């Protein structure tokens, strides 16, 4: 299907990954893998990343805007909801980043929870960008040459090592990032 619409350039590859942020049943593994197979490893990776990150950001911003309405205040003030929102604000970067690493999951709900918790836009964007980059690159590596991994499944170990190193680096980034914005997240919930 993407091959058929290749004359439209990157638009089909970007739009279908963008739509993934709004339509949870779309298969991320298949979409990202096919993008890498059709457009090549690096262009497929880039188009998938642009589509997924922009879709997550748009979802986040829409829900954040909706969450500002008064009719949600009563719900938001409940003790259990308050505790959850405080936890998400404190651990938001880890929460969003780690869940972004998985190619299957409730991305729409992750974006919505971060928005309702009033996670800082910058924190959300950095967490999504890095988490999705690791996931999209891993899936693109496999999707670009599926036959290679079928012939030699041991090469999947390299992909797993890449994900593990990325997790380690993300923890380092999170500690550094949380150190500079941790104090502000309690009092200031701006963008």
What's the shape?
Answer: globular
Radius of gyration: 18 Å
Content of β-strand: under 5%
**Fraction of helical residues:** over 70%
Helix/strand-derived category reads mainly alpha
Give the rounded overall mean pLDDT. 78
Instruction: Note the gap between the termini.
Output: 39 Å
Q: Can you count the beta strands?
A: 0
Query: Largest sheet at a glance?
Result: none
Flag low-confidence runs: 180-191
SSE order in H/E notation?
HHHHHHHHH
Polypeptide structure, described:
- The protein has helices at residues 11-20, 28-39, 41-66, 73-76, 79-100, 107-116, 121-144, 146-151, 156-187.
- It is mainly α and 191 residues long.
- The longest helix is centred in the C-terminal third of the chain and has 32 residues, at 156-187.
- It is globular, with a radius of gyration of 18 Å.
List strands and helices in order, with pairings.
Blueprint: H1 11-20, H2 28-39, H3 41-66, H4 73-76, H5 79-100, H6 107-116, H7 121-144, H8 146-151, H9 156-187
Helix pairs in contact: 1-2, 1-3, 2-3, 2-7, 3-6, 3-7, 5-6, 5-7, 5-9, 7-9
List keywords for this structure.
globular; single chain
Q: What is this structure, in a nutshell?
A:
76% of the residues lie in helices and 0% in strands.
């Amino acid at each position: 299907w993407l091959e058929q619409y290749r004359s439209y350039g990157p638009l089909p590859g970007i739009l279908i990954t963008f739509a993934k942020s709004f339509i949870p049943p779309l298969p991320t593994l298949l979409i990202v893998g096919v993008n890498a197979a059709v457009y090549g490893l690096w262009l497929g990776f880039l188009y998938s990343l642009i589509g997924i990150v922009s879709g997550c950001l748009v979802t986040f911003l829409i829900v954040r805007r909706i969450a500002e309405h008064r009719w949600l205040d009563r719900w938001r003030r409940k003790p259990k909801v308050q505790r959850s929102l405080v936890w998400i604000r404190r651990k938001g970067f880890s929460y969003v980043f780690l869940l972004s690493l998985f190619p299957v999951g409730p991305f729409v709900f992750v974006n919505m929870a971060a928005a309702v918790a009033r996670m800082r836009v910058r924190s959300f964007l950095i967490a999504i960008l890095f988490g999705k980059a690791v996931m999209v690159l891993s899936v693109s590596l496999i999707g670009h040459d599926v036959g290679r991994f079928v012939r030699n499944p041991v090469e999947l170990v390299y992909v797993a090592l890449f994900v593990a190193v990325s997790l380690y680096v993300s923890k380092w980034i999170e500690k550094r990032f949380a150190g500079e914005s941790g104090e502000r997240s309690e009092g200031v919930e701006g963008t």
